Amino acid sequence: DADVTQTPRNRITKTGKRIMLECSQTKGHDRMYWYRQDPGLGLRLIYYSFDVKDINKGEISDGYSVSRQAQAKFSLSLESAIPNQTALYFCATSDPTGYGANVLTFGAGSRLTVL
Amino acid sequence: ELKVEQNPLFLSMQEGKNYTIYCNYSTTSDRLYWYRQDPGKSLESLFVLLSNGAVKQEGRLMASLDTKARLSTLHITAAVHDLSATYFCAVDLSSGNTPLVFGKGTRLSVIA
What we know:
Distance between the termini of chain A: 32 Å
Shape of chain B: globular
Helix content of chain A: under 10%
Radius of gyration of chain A: 14 Å
Low-confidence stretches of chain B: none
Helix content of chain B: under 10%
Structural class of chain A: mainly beta
Oligomer: heterodimer
Distance between the termini of chain B: 41 Å
Number of strands of chain A: 11
Shape of chain A: globular
Mean pLDDT of chain B: 94
Order of helices and strands of chain A: EEEEEEEEEEE
Number of strands of chain B: 11
Low-confidence stretches of chain A: none
């Protein structure tokens, strides 16, 4: 099994629908992130969480919400999807202990299309 | 606000040639990361550079960090087709308590 699992991997939905993307990890990392990838724009941070009780907005949090249900689970919700939220979404985890670097482990990605 | 810029954004190379990808960032930091993304895949960590003058090498790729210039380079030696991918650099602040900020990526295509 993958260290970081995202579901669903692909989703097509309609404008106005509520969508949840789920992320679970088996690495035991405290830190979890949601990034969005659009062609030519790189990865942009939506939300991040450094532990179960910590939630922080990223660069592009408008239109999104998150829930950190447990150390291993971090879900991203689109309350009312719109077409410009069509993108590839990545969940990632990190553990800065050890040699102190914040190396991210990424999930496989969730491709979302909003019609 | 931390900003990370990569150039070039697109690079078409002939096999056997050398080239360098540049990554500039806006705020003092001594922590820089390089990732690789194959088409349709996720990102994988390539290098972690944690001090001024750090140099890491793996195969035909070599990364270096100049914190005074706020610049990292990813040098490709004698390119081969298997290196075709998108390469991202990312930076976080020296405290380690900020998330990574990514550049827009460099799409590398190695052609025969």
